[in-house]
Amino acid sequence: MALLMGLDVGTTAVKCIIVNDRLEVVASHESEYPLSTPQREWVEQDPEDWWNALRTSVRGVLGKLCDGATGQIVAIGLSSQGGALAPLDDLGQPIRPAISWLDHRSKPQAERLTEEFGIDFFYRRSGWSLRAGLPLTSLAWLRENEPENFRRAARFITTADYIAYRLTGRYVIDKSSACISILYNLLKRDWDEELLAIAGISRSRLSDLTNPMQEIGPLSCKAAGELGLRAGLPVYAGGHDQFCVALGAGVINPGEVLLSTGTAWVLVCAVENLTFDHKNYLAIEEHVVPGLWGILSSIPAGGVSMRWLKNFIGEQDYEAIDRDAEAISPGSNGLFFFPHLAGAGVPHWEGSHFGTIMGLRLGHARGHVSRALMEGVGYEVRWALECFRALGASPTVLKMLGGGTRSSVWPRIIADITGLQLEIPDVTDAGALGAAIAAGLGSGVLTSLQCLTDPGRHVLRIEPVRPVSDTYSRLFGLYKAIFKELSKVYKELEGINS
């Protein structure tokens, strides 16, 4: 039986899985690495940590296979975090730590360039509005603050092409991962010369572009020796991790929406046509599935807000919070929770917003607060879906993955607030699975995406309850109205505290 390896090099860990040609997980392993914060608003990583964790994960997963099964691995696929920037010298060695997409040091450069060129200049080319932490602004910061490192760098690469280089010796990046660099032109599907000129680099300092599911190259003898694999194994491009997660979860048809519920909650809507959003500036990227695009929105503290609540009330487990919330009627007896503990993300773009509880009275208990928090995140999900619809998308089903699915209450609330059928696929490590699927399709082990819609795949489905959805529709209108008034207060506070 042919086996496929999927590698997902995320923000803080590498996940490696082995699946067979029926996409059954044979073995998996995860290895973590740190984020470094040497100064305020700086977030960095050592690219060598990415490789060391990958090596640990691969050797860990191989140790779980039966004798002889390693020889059945026929292809490797890649998924990776987007937006990190690693300058390398002409020998392929890192010159300095990689600047993470979580980094905010280049905020002045982002603001200056946006003021000079306008937000549409960058958005209509790259599908991203200019922001700190992404490669174009990080390059601007490097050129101004570390000119010697900027001049010395032979290559500026991301996590995706660094791992491709360590595996194959070739500098190649898939177009899905290139999108988030703000150096890539969505319409031309190539590096953008005007954006490169603003960054102060030529395309010779970037990696070659390839499509997802295309072969990057054979596994080098050096990499094979470090990993314990056979040299010459074909390595295939996957994509930006959010889209590999979408592929692994089966979000492969127009109108399907991935709701990924981690520390942040991220929504990815699959669409057929490239449509720019000049109102809310939702990010747009190429999907890893040929012929599809993806619109992205995010709730920065969607998941971590629940962790904050657990710690705040001194609760030991989430099941108790679920029980408390389940006993409360929809609407939480007039209580609203605005879950902006890390600022209000897309489509608001308001980093100065705060978490807020509105309508608190003596009769409220902790169960009201717990349910109101779940509902507040649900209202933000619905708000994002409205933005998708304004772009001509027609969301039909939500496929929910991650920590939020472990709640016995939250998925039901999301279904009722959005009015959409919610599906929870029986999938773990969806990013690594998406990478394995990309390798399977590229190598021909998998012949079509039909395997992702196989009726045999276990999916939990939750249908919205219409009377409850109607109640939530009225409350959502109030939520939006209160948010707009709160925005004025937040701005006043920002002025006072600045």
Structural class: alpha+beta
Mean pLDDT: 94
Oligomer status: single chain
Spatial order of the strands forming the largest sheet: 17-18-16-15-21-22-23
Ends: how far apart?
62 Å
Tell me the fraction of residues in β-strands, as a range.
15-25%
> In one word, what is the shape?
globular
Percent helix, as a range, is: 25-40%
Number of strands: 23
Number of helices: 16
What is the CA-based Rg, rounded?
23 Å
The major β-sheet equals: 7 strands, mixed
Low-confidence segments, given as residue ranges, are none
What does this structure look like?
- The protein has 498 residues and is an alpha+beta fold.
- The chain is built from 16 helices and 23 strands.
- It has helices at residues 47-62, 107-117, 119-126, 135-145, 147-152, 159-168, 175-178, 193-199, 221-227, 241-249, 304-313, 318-326, 366-390, 410-418, 430-443, 466-497, and strands spanning 3-9, 13-20, 25-32, 44-45, 73-80, 86-88, 98-99, 155-157, 172-174, 184-185, 190-191, 208-210, 215-218, 234-240, 256-261, 265-271, 283-286, 293-299, 336-338, 356-358, 397-402, 421-425, 459-462.
- The strands form seven sheets. A seven-stranded mixed β-sheet has the order 17-18-16-15-21-22-23, with helices on both faces. Strands 3-2-1-5-14-13 form a six-stranded mixed β-sheet.
- Helix 14 links the parallel strand 21 and strand 22 (421-425).
- Helix 13 (366-390) crosses helix 14 (410-418).
- The longest helix has 32 residues, at 466-497.
- The protein is globular, with a radius of gyration of 23 Å.
